[in-house]
Design goal:
The protein is an alpha/beta fold. It has a single domain (about 5-145), classed as CBS-domain, CATH 3.10.580. It is about 35% helix and about 20% strand. The chain has helices at about 5, 20-30, 50-55, 60-65, 75, 90, 110-120, 140-145, and strands spanning about 10-15, 35, 45-50, 105, 125-130, 130-140. It has a 3-stranded mixed sheet. It has a 3-stranded mixed sheet with strand order 4-5-6. The radius of gyration is 18 Å and the shape is globular.
Length: about 160
């Protein structure tokens, strides 16, 4: 099986996209992250959903998760407001800190896809055909193909 066989369409956002809308897009579509396009409209990085949390959780709580206990539920509910009025570009790390785009070719094997995804620690890889982007592969889709008997009706993991 080749990368093109499991490629899906995945939304891409620009740096100018509203950060709260981008987070809502991830939530509503159960996306593991977003592909970010630059000025030339070409994707240049993947922003994993876990990284969005870095921008809504105070740094001191990230450094010491036990401090999260001092926040009540109302304060937790207000975390998303930190994204309001900000763009994706404003909440992303500086470009110099970003990894290049995790990319595979449409004729790459699934092992090659796994290797790129693992080496980039990315839940999404972009699939290209020459210079053209033809879609993406998410970790969810890759695992579905690699482990087809692991659906909701399969046996539960041992306790």
């Amino acid at each position: 099986m080749r990368a093109i066989d499991i490629t899906e369409q995945h939304p891409m956002v620009d740096e100018s996209t509203d950060a709260l809308e981008a987070a809502k897009l991830m939530a509503s579509r159960s996306l593991p992250g977003l592909v970010i396009r630059g000025d030339g409209k070409h994707p240049y990085t993947v922003l994993p959903a876990s990284q969005v949390l870095r921008f809504v959780i105070p740094t001191y709580v990230q450094e010491n998760p036990a401090l999260a206990r001092v926040y009540d539920e109302k304060a937790s509910d207000l975390m998303a407001t930190k994204l309001a009025g900000r763009t994706v570009g404003e909440v992303m790390p500086p470009r110099r800190e970003l990894a290049e785009i995790p990319r595979v070719n449409d004729d790459d094997t699934l092992l090659e896809v796994c290797a790129v995804m693992a080496s980039f620690h990315s839940p999404i890889v972009v699939v290209g055909h020459g210079e053209q982007i033809v879609g993406t592969i998410t970790i969810r889709r890759l695992l579905e193909v690699l482990f087809p008997d692991a659906g909701p009706d399969s046996e539960q993991a041992p306790a």
